[in-house]
Amino acid sequence: MVMEDKAEKGDVRSPTDTMGMVNVDASQTPRDNAPAAGASPASPTPGSQALLPDAVPDGGSAAWLVLLGSFVVMIATWGLVNTFGVYQTYYETDLLHDHSSSAISWIGSLQAAFLMVMGVVSGPLYDRGYVRQLVAAGLFLVVFGMFMTSLCASYWQVVLAQGICVGVGCGLLFLPSTAILSQYFDRHRAVAIGVQSVGSPLAGIVFPIIFSRLQPVVGFAWVTRIIAFILLGMAPVPLLFLRTRVPPAKKRQAFLDVSAFGDVPYLVWGAAGFFAFLGLYVPFFYVQLNAIRYNITSADFSAYLVTLLNAGSVFGRLLPSFLAARLGAMNMLIATTFSASILAFGWLGVDSLAGVVVFALLYGFCNGGVTSLPPSAIVTLTPDMGLLGTRMGMVFMVFGFAVLFGTPVAGAILRDPSDDGAWRGLIAFSASTLCVGGVLFSLAQFLHLKRARRAGVS
Q1: Tens place of pLDDT for every residue, the chain, 458 residues?
Q2: Which CATH number covers residue 363?
Q3: The whole model's pTM is what?
Q4: C-alpha 302: how far from its chain's center?
Q5: Cα(367)–Cα(373) distance, integer angstroms
Q6: Helix, strand, coil percentages for the chain (3-state, nearest 5)
């Protein structure tokens, strides 16, 4: 068995929007501070040296309550990011109609980028044991930011409230809520992470429906407040139940693995992720506006397209992860990236209600695979598990910047929503960047297997 098989079949975890968890066993005492893969984009899981398999409760009321708290956090973080498509359409057609698609896209891009990039702050604080403080601060900023969004009347106000305030809050919440699962689950960890990950597309299904049904009745301000009140009502769950069960690690990892800059497969893989994430969320932001522009759906039904994207993502987060245990996470990541690219090219020919519904479901499925598989795939490119959290932090920073710039670039290409050529350019940008990502993922896999053969691994 080659190194890739060992890593993927022996170490694959069912991932979420963040990293999978890597367990530490007693044989790893020379590097007992090896981080859990779910630790963060910046640092290891605290107390990982204490997380021996026989010490992890792997269930019980406390563990499942922690999972419930993590599930709620996924609703309040990635769930809001996945909902932004309905806000994009509303801003372009009403509140911010005098601003370009690109300018409006920056709001959602900032939100998603801060969610990933803020790991450089929440990671070290998590290592020091400030989990409850991070959760409290993150929930406050998310809820406060949504309430402030309901009061916004200008572009810069929406950027500050929904883009920056909500985004920073999501970034403080996201890492601790996922990393903490490694302290409570071992054999059932895949099930736990799978259940947690469903919170994101579930919110992406429910919130757009709430917005589309209530906005014409109660207005933008009150429908945004209703979503904020829902998040406020759920806030006590993570505040009460997200508690660490082991002390913070005494030894702290570096934020940067210098050796990674000489690891060619890893560098190619990081470049692949950058291109893939550059175009991955373009349909989430623009499919509703596109359907309205070409009279494919009514304005009332168009909001459900974001819901359908997220419905497909539910299965896309689960099925590819289970298949990865047999086929390999790298191979499944390549397959879902190329599939997303093919579907994005197919978006050019969608001109009917049935077509856009099928596109939304299938693209949502592939999106779920592309977003959830990288944490497991990167395990195969990390020779030292003690550097796994650091290496993940480095590439997730890159992915965060790709998400930040991707949809605004698409918006700049669009310029005028009434221009057919601009729409073709936007769709081609999304499809081609995903295609480049798939090619580079394949190249990284080839280089990795070639290096494994040279090393004589069997």
Answers
A1: 444 444 444 443 333 344 333 333 333 333 333 333 333 333 334 333 344 444 677 778 888 899 999 999 999 998 998 888 889 889 988 899 888 888 898 898 899 889 888 877 776 677 677 889 999 999 999 999 999 999 999 999 999 999 999 999 998 998 788 777 777 876 665 566 667 778 888 898 899 889 988 999 999 999 999 999 999 999 999 999 988 877 765 666 566 777 888 899 999 999 999 999 999 989 988 898 889 889 898 877 887 888 898 889 888 888 887 787 778 889 999 999 999 999 999 999 998 999 999 999 999 999 988 987 887 787 788 777 556 656 777 787 888 889 888 888 998 898 888 888 999 999 999 999 999 999 999 999 999 999 888 876 54
A2: 1.20.1250.20
A3: 0.73
A4: 24
A5: 10
A6: 75, 0, 25
Phi, psi of 368 (to 5 degrees): -60, -40
Closest CA to 394 of 196, 120, 168, 90: 120
CA distance 278 to 73: 25
Burial code (b: 16+ CB inside 10 Å, e: under 16) for 217-253 equals: eeebbebbbbbbebbbebbebbeebbbbbbeebeeeb
* Residues 383-393: b if buried by 16+ CB within 10 A, e if exposed: bebbbbbbbbb
Which residue, 41, 24, 31, 53, is CA-closest to 375? 41
Q: Which amino acid belongs to residue 166? A: V
Q: What is the sign of the dihedral through the CA atoms of 134, 137, 141 and 147?
A: positive
Number of domains in the chain: 1
Domain that holds residue 43: 3-23+30-454
